[in-house]
Amino acid sequence: MTIDHLTEQFSIRDLADEFDITTRTIRFYEDKGLMTPTRAGQRRIYSKRDRARLKLILRGKRLGFSLDEIQHLVDLYETPDDERPQLEKYLETLSRHKQTLLQQKQDLEKTLEELTQAEADCRAQIQRLNS
């Protein structure tokens, strides 16, 4: 990683390599307003703040948050005065996603049961036909 240790600046390639993502992904997050690097001509220069935001964005994506939810949480992260609103919003978002996943899990289990039954019925019918 080629970090400027005096100012802790990162190139787009540094961040892409560190987080194992493409530079195109980083540019996408920029286009969505989630990151705002400075520029030196055509070159993007990312700060520690940008790196922290990217880390939060990627965590949010892994947890299944929408880009709007991520934007809101990242913006709250920028408000150093009071952590409570950020934590409450984060907890609310986590709870909502957990409920969604639990419902999807129930739906999948029911679908698997139905598939297992349909498979058994089909095998029994084939066996009857073979008899």
Structure description:
With 131 residues, this protein is mainly α. The protein folds into 2 domains: 1-65, Multidrug-efflux Transporter Regulator, Chain: A, Domain 2; 79-131. 69% of the residues lie in helices and 5% in strands. It is built from 5 helices and 2 strands, in the order ααββααα. It has a two-stranded antiparallel sheet with strand order 1-2. A hairpin with a 2-residue loop joins strand 1 (38-40) and strand 2 (43-45).
Explain the layout of strands and helices:
Elements (H helix, E strand, L loop, with lengths): L11 H8 L3 H9 L6 E3 L2 E3 L2 H15 L4 H11 L6 H47 L1
Antiparallel strand pairs: 1-2
Provide a compact summary of the structure.
The chain is mainly α and 131 residues long. It folds into 2 domains: 1-65, Orthogonal Bundle (Multidrug-efflux Transporter Regulator, Chain: A, Domain 2); 79-131. It has 5 helices and 2 strands.
The percent of residues in helical segments reads 55-70%
Structural class: mainly alpha
Taking all residues together, what is the mean pLDDT? 88
Count every helix, treating DSSP H or I runs of 4 or more residues as helices.
5
The H/E string reads HHEEHHH
CATH architecture type of the largest domain:
Orthogonal Bundle
Give the distance, in angstroms, between the N- and C-terminal Cα atoms: 69 Å
Assembly form of the protein: single chain
Give the C-alpha Rg. Answer: 23 Å
Widest β-sheet, arrangement of strands: 1-2
Output the CATH class name of the largest domain: Mainly Alpha
Global geometry: elongated
Low-confidence stretches: none
What is the total tally of β strands? 2
Largest sheet: 2 strands, antiparallel
Count structural domains.
2
Strand content: under 5%
Enter the CATH topology name of the largest domain.
Multidrug-efflux Transporter Regulator, Chain: A, Domain 2
